[in-house]
Amino acid sequence: SAAEKGGYDYFMLKEIAEQPKAVADTLLGRIDASGSLSLDELRIPDAELREAEKVVIVACGTAFHAGLIAKYAIEHWTRIPCEVELASEFRYRDPILDARTLVVAISQSGETMDTLMALRHAREQGAKVLAICNTNGSTIPRESDAVLYTHAGPEVAVASTKAFLTQLVACYLVALYLGQVRGTKWGDEIHAVVRELARSAEKVEQVLETMEPVRALARSLADKNTVLFLGRHVGYPVALEGALKLKELAYMHAEGFAAGELKHGPIALIEEDLPVVVVVPSPRGRSVLHDKIVSNIQEIRARGARTIVIAEEGDESVAPYADHLIRIPATPTLLQPLVATVPLQVFACELATARGNEVDQPRNLAKSVTVE
Ligand code: AGP
């Protein structure tokens, strides 16, 4: 009913709007005033976390994209090797697991059969399993050794939005906590990250306030057949997520690519007026990456692409090559997905509406996939 949707036309719109609160709720009580992580709720003893030799993340769909982003954070902040795998592929390739492997299973519903089977397989091999889950008491956390709940609240729309942002928050918390218990040197970079993470709800709010041009742009593209998404580093999984949202909701051909791969094939797809969304990393920090993606934008534009550029406020270098420029607040590189994903959600939702699709209940899809 309209009341359930809180005055919004669709649950998805309501859930997009709830993201600042979902992020804040997921952070609540987990970072103390001194910037230390307090995750006693994880029932895995610190000693075991210290001994973990490898992290393996298993998940499906949007949760898998959160896992891909987590890999960058875990490896960079903790130096523990991390693999990410589609849960549906995991157990069929005889993965190498033992008591020193920490498996992280990410699932909004906690009922996804592929993810459940992957975690059962991991536990049979003696690995410890930590669930990141949004649904209290669901099967995946019940069958795991430990759980870190995301506090997104119920997500009704089939297309995941607020659950994804909270999965990212949970992944960052786990990564930082692993670093903390293992005594990783807490340099200025990590202190800054913790501070910025604590402020991320505000930044998501800021993005939401500036989405009208994104909606207008989406409507203007309603009769297109294809949209491509490019990113690199953590922007690559963001590109994959942007493409998945568009497939699910707008039923359009959408693909995400690592921008560095363009020259290895996908650039052949570029043609006159093809919309290409590019997620630009921060010009601060890893500026080499930034410069490379700016030249990618120039390359595709020279071949006729209509460039839709998502870039940090104050990043002027991209402006001359952007047919449409979407601004996001400046954020440390690893946290950028928290803000960069939001315009892509809004974009897909609006395009779906413009194409007359059922936003909350896309064809052929179920909210949780309880079959393998
Ligand atoms: C997200 O928009 C999708 N509907 C889907 O990919 C989903 O993320 C996937 O099925 C995993 O679901 P889960 O998080 O409940 O395990």
From TrEMBL:
Its EC number is 2.6.1.16. It is found in: Cytoplasm. Keywords: Aminotransferase, Cytoplasm, Glutamine amidotransferase, Repeat, Transferase. It comes from Streptomyces solicathayae. This is Glutamine--fructose-6-phosphate aminotransferase [isomerizing]. The active site is at 367 (for fru-6p isomerization activity). It comes from the Bacteria. GO terms for molecular function: glutamine-fructose-6-phosphate transaminase (isomerizing) activity. Homodimer. It catalyses: D-fructose 6-phosphate + L-glutamine = D-glucosamine 6-phosphate + L-glutamate. Residues 45-184, 217-362 form the SIS domain. It is an enzyme of class 2 (transferase). Catalyzes the first step in hexosamine metabolism, converting fructose-6P into glucosamine-6P using glutamine as a nitrogen source.
